[in-house]
Design a protein that fits this description.
The structure is a single chain. The protein contains twelve helices and twelve strands. It has one domain: NADP-dependent oxidoreductase domain (TIM Barrel). Helices cover about 35% and strands about 15% of the residues. Helix 3 packs parallel to helix 4 and helix 10 packs across helix 11. The longest helix has 16 residues. The chain is globular. The structure holds NADP nicotinamide-adenine-dinucleotide phosphate.
């Protein structure tokens, strides 16, 4: 599997990253043997980045990925996790973040973690009830992150690139994170492509490209629009049954309906199905360090690896996809 530089860090990440979140549910709700088989297969296929968070399954995702990597005796996989402020924790940011890092390390069973991200959305103003941090709040987070780097608890830190586009860009410019999570898919590609004013969803203003220019590693999320880009509303039994879209349609069903426009990719023989199109679309952007996907079972990781091994989409398919974004 292709490895890409993670910004200007010394990390190289597999172009396909293993999502340990709750949308797919594998690393939170599956049986141990299914998790083990999936992680082992991913590692044997060259995947080296596993993305977790304290919020996923209330700590279960961190516990499971840490334990399974130990069981497989894998010490060189890269693990990322996330901290998140809520409620009164906004009054004590630095201490809260330091404590959360300690707790994540305990759950992971590790002495150090490769990268820690903020999980809160970012805005101009702090909005406690919405879990949104202000650009100023991030200053205190960064102090805690830097202390954790100095003490060897974390190697790198980054931000969640969700929230208000201008605020995210201000935070990136002010604090120079090592990495950023960014929403990127065929329905909302604005982190990687410029679109016109008729584009119907949030415009991330080429955040992905700006970060790449600054030497910031980029982690693509919502590559499958939470599953909607599979083209069907059916959810795997272990998956989150109600998925809230991020920067695409108002509902999951709206996103599924939108995928009809992309069926030509299958009809014209560019791909075998829409999930393949979504994953190969993401890796076609060489500015993206790693494309994370959410997984419900072994079959999905196996298929995703097969798709990635076919390489980026052909230029002709990308040109045709691009034309769709300029339709109001
Ligand atoms: N920074 C953040 O705030 C943030 C937010 C979201 C996600 N993330 C990270 O990104 C990861 C990915 O999650 P996501 O929310 O972005 O979801 P996603 O990857 O866009 O979608 C995941 C869904 O895609 C479907 N799928 C996966 N592989 C498939 C395949 N081979 N064929 C057909 N369908 C397939 C599954 O749906 P079914 O189960 O219904 O089949 C799965 O639940 C998370 O685990 C997490 O690590 C981070």
């Amino acid at each position: 599997m292709e490895l890409r530089n993670f910004g200007s860090t010394d990390l190289t990440m597999s172009v396909l990253g293993f999502g340990c979140g709750t949308v797919g549910g594998l690393m939170v709700r599956a049986e141990h043997k299914e998790m083990l088989k999936s992680v082992e297969y991913a590692i044997d296929s060259g995947i080296n980045y596993f993305d977790s968070a304290r919020m996923y399954g209330d700590g279960l995702s961190e516990i499971h990925i840490g334990a399974i990597l130990r069981e497989l005796d894998v010490s060189d996989a890269l693990v990322g996790t996330k901290v998140r402020l809520s409620g009164s924790e906004f009054n004590n940011i630095e201490t809260t973040i330091s404590t959360q890092i300690e707790n994540s390390l305990q759950r992971l069973g590790a002495e150090t973690v490769d990268i820690v991200y903020t999980h809160n959305t970012v805005g101009k103003e702090r909005k406690v009830d919405d879990g949104q941090v202000s650009v100023e709040d991030l200053e205190y987070v960064v102090v805690a992150f830097e202390k954790a780097v100095k003490s060897g608890k974390i190697r790198y830190w980054g931000f969640n690139g969700l929230g208000e586009t201008d605020a995210i860009k201000s935070a990136v410019n002010l604090y120079s994170p090592s990495g950023i999570h960014t929403c990127y898919n065929m329905i909302n590609p604005t982190s990687g492509y410029s679109v016109n004013d008729t584009f119907p969803y949030q415009n991330y203003g080429e955040l992905l490209n700006e970060c790449t220019k600054k030497g910031i590693g980029t982690v693509g999320i919502r590559i499958l629009a939470g599953g909607a880009l599979s083209g069907t509303p059916d959810r795997h039994p272990l998956a989150l049954q109600e998925v809230a879209p991020i920067a695409t349609g108002g509902t999951y069903q709206e996103d599924v309906d939108r995928t009809v426009s992309y069926k030509f990719l299958v009809d014209e023989g560019f791909v075998g199905n829409l999930a393949e199109a979504a994953i190969r679309f993401a890796i076609s952007n060489t500015n993206l360090s790693t494309a994370l996907i959410g997984l419900s079972n072994f079959d999905q990781i196996q298929k995703a690896i097969d798709f990635v091994n076919k390489g980026p989409l052909p230029g002709e398919a990308l040109d045709k996809i691009r034309k769709l974004w300029f339709v109001a």
